[in-house]
């Protein structure tokens, strides 16, 4: 079994505007139960605001509490699932990269910190006083989405942009902008993460990525250390481990085949590498995950 990759046109009530969807969260869950009952990923960007409810949102094997005022952001390719202990409410919208970036040619989605890097947390907890105003903006998008008015798409995209700007200001409220890393380093980090995503199955050494970026391995390590306080090797290893976890939990392949898929020389080496990085053997990780899942 492969992890399902959901597309916008699979969701009910998404036919009125290409590459965009919005719904109240309760209605979204009720209409799309079959799509959402198992862990899945998307080929689009997602933003959800919770105004009620409680539960757990698992994103790439990290668990986050759901409660009023939480906002979650997902980029294409991230795997996630929901478990609710109290009925959720709020709004959810998602859109393609093209929908946004064709209208804002000089401003990409990666300019927003929650979409910039997988190293940045995929959530934000709003101060209670900010929830009503944000909820009104989501409602305005929803109302616009349900009607057929002149310049509908442009209005929706401008509202999305306004929401992302407001959320960015809250997300970075405690950032000292005088101490921010240089923009050139941030560009290199973004390119590095994209290269790792495209090549980690077969390219596991920093030298390959440094060559692709036309910089030295030493400078690449300096960039990664300065921006996220990690090494290039750590970034590569983390991506390999994330994919290993996805395959161990969400595929029907046996562990030896997973080792082969990830281009390890043999299963023993893969198991040793996985345990070194996670504290568990692949088999124990699978057992532990399903034990927790059934509690």
UniProtKB/TrEMBL annotation:
Keywords: DNA-binding, Transcription, Transcription regulation. SUPFAM superfamilies: Homeodomain-like, Regulatory protein AraC. The keyword Transcription applies. InterPro entries: AraC-bd, Homeodomain-like_sf, HTH-like, HTH_AraC, RmlC-like_jellyroll. GO terms for molecular function: DNA-binding transcription factor activity; sequence-specific DNA binding. Pfam families: AraC_binding, HTH_18. Residues 190-288 form the HTH araC/xylS-type domain. This is Helix-turn-helix domain-containing protein. The lineage of its organism: Bacteria, Pseudomonadati, Bacteroidota, Flavobacteriia, Flavobacteriales.
């Amino acid at each position: 079994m492969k992890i399902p990759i959901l597309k916008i046109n699979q969701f009910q009530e998404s036919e009125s505007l290409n590459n965009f969807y919005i719904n109240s969260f309760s209605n979204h869950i009720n209409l799309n139960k079959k799509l959402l009952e198992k862990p899945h990923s998307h080929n689009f960007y997602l933003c959800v605001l919770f105004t009620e409810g409680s539960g757990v949102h698992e994103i790439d094997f990290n668990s986050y509490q759901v409660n009023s005022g939480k906002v979650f952001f997902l980029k294409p390719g991230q795997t996630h699932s929901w478990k609710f202990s109290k009925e959720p409410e709020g709004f959810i919208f998602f859109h393609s990269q093209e929908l946004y970036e064709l209208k804002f040619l000089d401003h990409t989605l990666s300019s927003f910190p929650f979409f910039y890097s997988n190293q940045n947390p995929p959530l934000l907890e709003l101060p209670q006083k900010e929830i009503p105003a944000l909820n009104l903006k989501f409602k305005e998008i929803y109302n616009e989405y349900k009607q057929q008015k002149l310049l509908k798409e442009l209005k929706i995209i401008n509202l999305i942009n306004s929401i992302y700007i407001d959320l960015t200001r809250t997300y970075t409220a405690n950032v000292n902008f005088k101490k921010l890393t240089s923009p050139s380093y941030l560009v290199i980090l973004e390119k590095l993460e994209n290269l790792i995503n495209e090549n980690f199955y077969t390219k596991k050494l920093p030298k390959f990525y440094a060559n692709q970026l036309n910089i030295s391995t030493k400078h690449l390590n300096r960039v990664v250390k300065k921006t996220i306080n990690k090494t290039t090797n750590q970034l590569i290893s983390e991506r390999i481990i994330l994919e290993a976890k996805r395959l161990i939990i969400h595929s029907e392949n046996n562990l030896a085949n997973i080792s082969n898929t990830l281009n390890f020389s043999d299963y023993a080496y893969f198991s040793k590498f996985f345990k070194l990085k996670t504290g568990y053997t692949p088999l124990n990780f699978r057992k532990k995950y399903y034990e927790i899942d059934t509690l």
